[in-house]
Amino acid sequence: MSDSALFLNGLRPEARDAPASGIAEVHQRALQKADPVVKFWVGEGDLPTPDHIRAAAVRSLAAGETFYTHQGGLPELREALARYHQRLYGAAGDPARFLVTASGMHAITLAVSLVAGAGDEVIVPTPAWPNAAAAVTVHGAGVREVPMRFGPAGWDLDIDAIAAAIGPRTRAISINSPSNPLGWVASRQRLADILALARRTGLWILADEVYGRFCYLPDQPVAPSFHDVMAPDDRIIFVNTFSKNWAMTGWRIGWIEVPAVLDGPVQNLIQYSSSGTPVFVQRAAIEALDNGEPFISRQIDGARANRQRLVEALAATGRVRLSPPDGAFYLFMAIDGETDTRALCLRLVDEIGVGLAPGTAFGTGGSEFMRLCFAGSALQLRDGVDRLGAWIAARFGNVA
Fold first, then answer.
1. Cβ distance 73 to 278 under 8 Å?
2. How crowded is the C-beta side of 7, counted as CA atoms within 13 Å?
3. Residues 125-182: pLDDT tens digits?
4. What φ, ψ does residue 139 adopt, rounded to 5°?
5. What is the SS3 assignment for 157?
6. CB 47 within 8 A of CB 274
7. What's this model's pTM, rounded to 2 decimal places?
């Protein structure tokens, strides 16, 4: 047996068998290209973090705030998170419900740690961001995928299918709305139905509402949320991040919202994972929450305009299946006759310098689709879509 096999066999199966990311594979392929590749595979825009947010971090560093701090987050940041949620959803926020994490991904791993482990199961509607399912499996629990339906009206979640998937080992239902990668937005009634099911069965809800500010429904500036239908003692754990709203992907800071009685257990899990988030990063986060609304509006306006251009351009090819996304900043699309999207995405990098994320990375139900992020500049979008449109025209011929 080789040395590498000996090392691998000595690992826990959860670590050894952790799935490689299909999104990262496209990224690695793009790095091998001499010419720039249009980055549609990554879930971020191309704007840097606003100056005033960066300045808050610089002031903190200049003041020498480089020591250990509150493991659950600065009290000032937890209060700012409570104010932010009160502005969005109306109800008075309780700072004890909000704890600061070292990224949105850290929040997800904490959420899973609270409710699922070896022998348990978590229901994950798919297609879904692959990290959500991976967070479950690396904790030793199993994932029960429930494919969402794609039809003339777009993607939707079948409540009866969710109910049918519940078994004796089920501990939680993971819900991501607005959805990455689908752009699907759960209606308030759909969320109420999911909550009613969780209440009847005693299950937890893991609510990923990271893209809640990116909503394109008429007269709906914020996507419907479990905050709209829940009671304070409902078994709902929210995960969120500063990455998307304020262009802070590289800062690695997020938050988890739990019933206040779970403050202690979550603080313990933070202690044994990150031991807290740097103070200067938290100072930047406070500035983002309190003074970052103009930047969020700018980002949403840009994404809305890009969405319109993108849908029109791809629909005009006559060869693309899609549903205009109601939220987030992703389009999930399929090209006629192309079923192996992993191979197709690698070909598109090589042949036209356009990188998309393959649907195979997002679980059951989306293997023939690809995810395209439209959060970047209008110029980047035009360049990439022109290349993609020319490739489709060359493959099928011009649409009459």
1. no
2. 3
3. 999 999 999 999 999 999 999 999 998 889 999 999 999 999 999 999 999 999 999 9
4. -95, 10
5. coil
6. no
7. 0.95
